[in-house]
Each structure stands twice: as structure tokens, then as C-alpha cells.
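Lab notebook, design round three. We kept the backbone fixed and only want residue identities now. Task for the bench partner: fill in a sequence for the structure below.
Input C-alpha cells:
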């Protein structure tokens, strides 16, 4: 179970799993055990982990998201939407 969880975390974090990630991995495995080791339990454990939630987006995605937010704040004619 440790190997699977480490691989899942590595994929999700887009980095190697380090020693400081091991408490989270052990917690994910412990929580998954209470749910009969369902895949969804592992995935949920990874996405709710501090390491995943605090991971930074790559620069290309940060720029895209800020652009999308700016476009959403503007109207279709390029003027700013009025808030009611």
C-alpha cells in the first residue's frame, strides 16, 4: 500500500515524495483501511493532504487562471460588469 500511495502522491504533486511527506502517506493508508482500501479513499486522501492543497501551480497555469478571472470580470463588450 505504501508504494501505491507514494506513486499516487508523486503523480499528484508532480515531484518526488520526501521524508516529510511520509506522515501524510501513512495517514492516507490508515484512512483508506477504514474504507476497505478503495481507490477513491486514496484519491480523496491525496487531494485533501496539505502537500497537495499547498502545491503551487506552474507559471503557465497561473497566468491562464488570472487571465480567465479578468475576462470573467469584464462584460462581453470589454467593459467591466456592474455588481448589484
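Proposed sequence:
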Amino acid at each position: 500500500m505504501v508504494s501505491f500511495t507514494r506513486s499516487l502522491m508523486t503523480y499528484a504533486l508532480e515531484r518526488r515524495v520526501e521524508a516529510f511527506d511520509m506522515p501524510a502517506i501513512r495517514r492516507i493508508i490508515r484512512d483508506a483501511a477504514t474504507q476497505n482500501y478503495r481507490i477513491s479513499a486514496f484519491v480523496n486522501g491525496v487531494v485533501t493532504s496539505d502537500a497537495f492543497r499547498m502545491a503551487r501551480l506552474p507559471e503557465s497555469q497561473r497566468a491562464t487562471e488570472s487571465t480567465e478571472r479578468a475576462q470573467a470580470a469584464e462584460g462581453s463588450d470589454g467593459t467591466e460588469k456592474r455588481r448589484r
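Keep this in mind before ordering anything: Helices lie at 2-13, 22-33, 39-47, 50-53, 59-73.
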